[in-house]
């Protein structure tokens, strides 16, 4: 990985790095990217609806939705790098010396500290993707029918990002010794996930009926 941020690289370079033997970028970055793409598609639906006389009555709503989706897109784009950064920190912790008992204790403590951050990063991504699902629904309900399928793609991308981020929360909490912290984070995740299956289906079906 060079010093150029992942989000600033070409798709081809990103995919090459994703396919390589390097552990980063990985699934966490892809989860954030899927969420960012969902937010971008919501923005696209907004931009292609705003200014159209046929949709004048939802103009204000779509402008407000566009503002939200652009903020969310930037947030999720930043999470692509955040995932790489925390994973690299975790690898550094795993690489610490373990020759003596003192080394082992220090190494274990360092790993556990970073694992907490490595849980918080995908948890934040899951929350952002859940928000993208909600925004996709608004786009599907009020957006131009000319690009309504893009609202459907948005909700599916957001859902994929959400479930993918959840997997990273599960794998990292499984390695935590602080079970109170882990259980609290898992409870947060379940709260985020609650109702999303139905919400995604509703949005998908809304889009399908307009095709």
Could you characterize what this model shows?
By secondary structure, the protein is mostly helical. Helices cover 78% and strands 0% of the residues. It contains seven helices and no strands. It has helices at 11-19, 27-47, 59-94, 101-142, 148-173, 179-193, 196-210. Helix 2 (27-47) runs antiparallel to helix 5 (148-173), helix 4 (101-142) runs antiparallel to helix 5 (148-173) and helix 5 packs antiparallel against helix 7 (196-210). The termini are far apart. The mean pLDDT is 96.
Rg from alpha-carbon coordinates: 20 Å
Secondary-structure element pattern, one letter each: HHHHHHH
Overall pLDDT metric = 96
Helix content: over 70%
Largest sheet features? none
Low-confidence stretches: none
Number of strands: 0
Taking the alpha carbons of the first and last residues, their distance comes to 43 Å
């Amino acid at each position: 990985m060079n010093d150029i941020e992942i989000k600033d690289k070409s798709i081809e370079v990103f995919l090459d790095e994703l396919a390589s033997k390097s552990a980063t970028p990985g699934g966490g970055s892809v989860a954030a990217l899927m969420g960012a793409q969902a937010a971008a598609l919501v923005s696209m639906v907004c931009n292609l609806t705003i200014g159209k006389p046929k949709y004048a009555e939802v103009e204000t709503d779509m402008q407000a939705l566009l503002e939200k989706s652009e903020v969310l897109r930037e947030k999720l784009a930043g999470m692509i790098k955040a995932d790489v950064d925390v994973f690299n920190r975790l690898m550094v912790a795993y690489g610490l010396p373990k020759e003596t008992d003192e080394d082992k204790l220090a190494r274990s403590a360092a790993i556990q500290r970073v694992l907490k951050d490595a849980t918080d990063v995908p948890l934040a991504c899951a929350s952002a993707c859940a928000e993208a699902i909600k925004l996709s629904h608004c786009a599907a309900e009020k957006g131009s029918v000319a690009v309504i399928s893009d609202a459907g793609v948005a909700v599916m991308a957001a859902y994929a990002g959400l479930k993918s981020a959840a997997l990273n929360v599960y794998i990292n909490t499984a390695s935590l010794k602080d079970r109170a912290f882990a259980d609290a984070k898992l409870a947060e995740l379940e709260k985020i996930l609650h109702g999303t299956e139905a919400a995604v289906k509703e949005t998908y079906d809304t889009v399908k009926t307009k095709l």
